[in-house]
Design a protein that fits this description.
Order of helices and strands: HHHHHHHHHHHHEHEHHH
Largest sheet: 2 strands, antiparallel
Number of helices: 16
Distance between the termini: 18 Å
Shape: globular
Structural class: mainly alpha
Oligomer: single chain
Length: 313
Amino acid sequence: MFTPDQLVPEPRELVRRHGVPDTIAGWKALGDGLLSDQPCAFHRNLEISSRYAWLYTFLPAYFKWAGMAAFASHHVRLALFPFRLDTDRTGYVDIPRSLRRQRALLLADVNTIRETNNAIFDDIFWAHLAYGTAESGIECLRELLAGDPHYTRALAGFEAIDQGRRALEDGTASAATAMGLIWRGNIELLEHEQRVLVQPNLDRLSCAFARLFSIGSALSFEVRGMRDEASYFTSFYLYSLTRGIRRPQAWPRITRYEDRWRWIETSIVPRFQRFDADTRLADISLCRIFDEARDYASNPCVTRSRSAPRAPA
């Protein structure tokens, strides 16, 4: 296991040290080993965000989903803020204690967001690791995922990414055609995430939290500076109430798949494509994710004057 303040080897070296797994469970275990045993929900989120960023920087030309996931997961930390208001005496988040007081802060709903973030990591991170490090990544995924209906769309996404990658590296198609395939594959992965993992969990949210979550859903890719931040910032409500409304009789909700997907596809993805093309800006923003994960690695969410044994979360 590694903590965010430790130097993690590049993915191929990591797999070489541990051996190439031959099952999905083995690949998942390898991915889980990149997370520490930190039980705090807020710290766990920061670790997951930094590992997505680690994947993206490994193969930025192909792992577009991982880049978007790094910033989306990093933004989820804001939704987890109510947990930070209910830390135990050590200053760390204690989920069992918090859920006993769920009515005051809608913490059952916040916990659903936490579980969703964890589920996405468990479901997709390992597949990127396998594709990027196995001797023939796409063949590895075909063997592991063929015939599994859960991963049908995800496998199709990796197939498109691999087709674009080969065309780009072999020069058998124009760069624009190859990149089109790569982006199409990453958007397939995004659809898999949103349909299979996110939507069933968002359906469980209370109406009150769904409204608050809709209002607060925004993304800026950690870009700083007034001009750049305004250029890359996108808000679900602002988009929905100006450009995204298709059904005037229905108030937009982030928990409604068609509303959320329209925002993702026509606002988030185009902005990330511009962001991805600016390597200097991307490097600076990713460093903020790495730095925050490292800085929080050994520090509690809230400093307390007294300490006590921490309850597991």
